[in-house]
Design goal:
The protein is an alpha+beta fold. The relative contact order is 0.18. Strands 5, 6, 7, 8, 9, 10 and 11 form a 7-stranded mixed sheet that branches. A 4-stranded antiparallel sheet has the order 1-2-3-4, with no helix packed on it. It contains 6 helices and 11 strands. The radius of gyration is 22 Å and the shape is elongated. The two termini are 23 Å apart.
Length: 206
């Protein structure tokens, strides 16, 4: 037996699609909307800053407190510390946008674009991931994993592939894709985001 909330969501979608005029449906389908997201956790930035500072200290110790000229290998910690500026800058790419019927998730170095039609919104959930260890991020190849932050592609503990933008695990919007993958999104107001996606789907005749 289907959950009452699912019937209510489907009825709301159908009503919106039926009552709105063609011009209104077209505007809603093409509109761009930026969803507020959970901020990047301060601990993630502190981790990068602390690691860069530690590498710089190691570099100074290796050169005896003298700045270049020095052997190349002694400058390696300084080079690594400088490279850490890249992930620090990448933390600015942290957004979720609905743009012309496509959900665009920018999570540091990584971007996922999914058409609304490819999302199974009827089975979307809002969960506390701490109570659902099967949805915990486990491993992956293309991701940026820092204390408090998960961004990019992961293999979850339930063996499903998911694209994540997570700065908090307390109220996560879990969006299944019809192809079997998932989106785990740290939207600031996941309920409002899901409602907006359903309205946009109804406007597109979904």
């Amino acid at each position: 037996m289907a959950a009452p909330g699912r019937h209510l969501g489907a009825m709301t979608d159908a009503r919106l699609g039926r009552d709105a005029g063609p011009a209104h449906r077209q505007d809603a389908a093409q509109a761009r909307h930026d969803f507020p997201v959970d901020p990047v956790p301060p601990v993630s930035r502190l981790f990068l800053a602390g690691l860069a500072t530690a590498l710089a200290v190691v570099g100074l110790a290796g050169t005896g407190g003298r700045l270049p000229p020095a052997p190349g290998w002694q400058l390696l910690p300084f080079a690594l510390a400088a490279l850490l500026a890249l992930p620090g800058l990448a933390l600015r790419r942290w957004s979720i946008t609905l743009d012309r019927g496509e959900l665009v998730v920018a999570a540091t170095f990584f971007t996922r674009r999914v058409p609304l039609e490819a999302l199974d919104l009827d089975h979307a959930r809002i969960l506390d991931l701490r109570a659902h260890p099967e949805l915990g991020t486990w491993t992956g190849g293309r991701n940026m994993d820092l204390p408090g932050l998960s961004a990019g592609w992961y293999l979850l503990r339930n063996r499903r592939r998911a694209f994540c933008l997570l700065g908090s695990r307390e109220r996560v919007l879990v969006l299944p894709e019809r192809g079997g993958r998932m989106l785990l999104l740290g939207a600031r107001d996941p309920r409002a985001m899901l409602a907006r996606l359903r309205i946009a789907r109804a406007a597109r005749g979904g």
